[in-house]
Design brief:
Arc Repressor Mutant, subunit A, elongated, 8 strands, 2 domains, alpha+beta, 6 helices, Thrombin, subunit H
Length: about 200
Amino acid sequence: MNNKEDCGSANFEDYKKSDITKLGAGAKILIALIKGQPLKRIDLCKNTGIDESTFNRYKRFLLNERIIKKTPKGYCLYGFNDLSSYWDRVQKNCLEAGGSLIDLKAQKLELGDQNPISGHYETNYNPISIQGIMIHRGAIELKAAASVLIPDAYSAFLLTQASILEGDRLSWRDDLYEVKDLEEIFDGNELSFRIAKLVLIPK
């Protein structure tokens, strides 16, 4: 009897039994984030193939150990540097102050034919849908969050990435506004969003 060979064979069998054959849920979460981050909870569960209850258990541990962190865009590794745009940061600040990105009905001003006598052009309005953050003149916290001051000459400001121009109109809370002035806000050299300065059109 070869005791040495028997011991070697037994150790090899034990090694094979203890060998890892699949990844745990924690490892799957980390690998999914390495491949692409940040990720929302539903996307993390989908990418890792684990259910939400399992994710929630591991999430608490990973957050407490500062292995992952939660951002407005989703979960990411703790050292991940989220280089969000200026528009993203403004939205986040407004959301925390009670504002939100809302859908609005706008009317794009289009000039028609010129009147040969008066010289004035016919005005037509083409309806479109846009998104933006409405800030009324009395919304103190929202104005502070967006770092804007609304002069008495205007009724409200609209922060939007939509392509709107002076003379366009939009509806909000059963009121009709006209864009009297427009300011473009840049993030470096890139246009980030526009501030449409609105006046209320009397009913």
